[in-house]
Amino acid sequence: MKFGVKTYDSKEFLDYLLDKADFFEVQAIRKNDYSFLKNYSGKKSIVIHCEHQGFGVNLCDSSKKEFNLGAISFAQKLADLTNSKKIIVHLGYLEEGNKNCLRENAIELLKEINDKRICVENVPYIARGFNGISFGSSPKEIKEVCREVGCGFCFDINHAIDFARDLHKDIYLVIKEFEMFNPNHYHLGGQNIEKGISHLDFKDSNLDLEKIFSLLNKNAEITLEVGINEKEVEKDLKIVREI
């Protein structure tokens, strides 16, 4: 397994972890300047993550098409700059009462873009903080989208656990079902399952990492979605590698 670290826009964070992480993941935010990423060309492979609902993006909402396309276009340009082979995308959510929100809109938009670097990420069933239900939370939906679009799959293990909790399913059976789709990439952070809190450092987590790793491809490339303190992230890298 290979383990990477994620940042929004911190060169200092990446410099500190340059010799400690196997790769980097960068959240592409349109207002940020990422020219510094050229410094890592040939040193580290870089995964790009497109803006998601937290930035106002919702691929299901046809009234946001231009805004959504702008987010993906920015991520594509950043992927071009860094020679990235993966662009991670959230499909969005079905906002209650919004007739513009349809699953088909997200699928058609990705088909229109037709970029084989795109990997759709599974998300929790409930669009927390938003008035609606997520699209792409279930194994069935992810399978449908990957088949229709011809794209890759980013398996977010914490989101799968949230999905299992929301629908009262067995966590490990859900992980096994997602894993059957041969993910192109993975996300994993610390999580308090009972409280439904994720993206924690592993020292604050109650996940059975040994059991989870036993269910995953041994060649998995896993971005650690933990805290943003580089010294704590260094500890998290040590924890997963020891397991």
What's a quick, concise take on this entry?
The protein is of the alpha/beta class and 243 residues long. The protein has helices at residues 11-17, 65-82, 103-113, 139-149, 157-166, 171-179, 209-214, 230-242, and strands at 2-7, 23-27, 46-49, 87-90, 93-95, 118-121, 132-134, 152-156, 185-188, 190-192, 197-200, 221-224.
List the helices and strands and how they pair.
Blueprint (H helix, E strand, L loop, with lengths): L1 E6 L3 H7 L5 E5 L18 E4 L15 H18 L4 E4 L2 E3 L7 H11 L4 E4 L10 E3 L4 H11 L2 E5 H10 L4 H9 L5 E4 L1 E3 L4 E4 L8 H6 L6 E4 L5 H13 L1
Parallel strand pairs: 1-2, 1-12, 2-3, 3-4, 4-6, 6-8, 8-9, 9-12
Antiparallel strand pairs: 5-7, 10-11
Helix pairs in contact: 5-6
Number of helices: 8
Strand ordering within the main sheet: 1-2-3-4-6-8-9-12
Unreliable stretches, pLDDT < 50, 5 or more residues? none
User: Helical proportion?
Assistant: 25-40%
**The CATH C-level class name:** Alpha Beta
CATH fold annotation: TIM Barrel
What is the straight-line distance between the termini?
A: 11 Å
Characterize the biggest β-sheet. Answer: 8 strands, parallel, barrel
Q: Can you count the beta strands?
A: 12
CATH architecture grouping? Alpha-Beta Barrel
Broad shape: globular
CATH homologous superfamily classification: Divalent-metal-dependent TIM barrel enzymes
Give average pLDDT, whole number: 96
Strand content: 15-25%
Number of structural units classed as domains: 1
- Which structural class do the helices and strands define? alpha/beta
Give me the strand/helix succession. Answer: EHEEHEEHEEHEHHEEEHEH
Q: Mind telling me the C-alpha Rg?
A: 17 Å
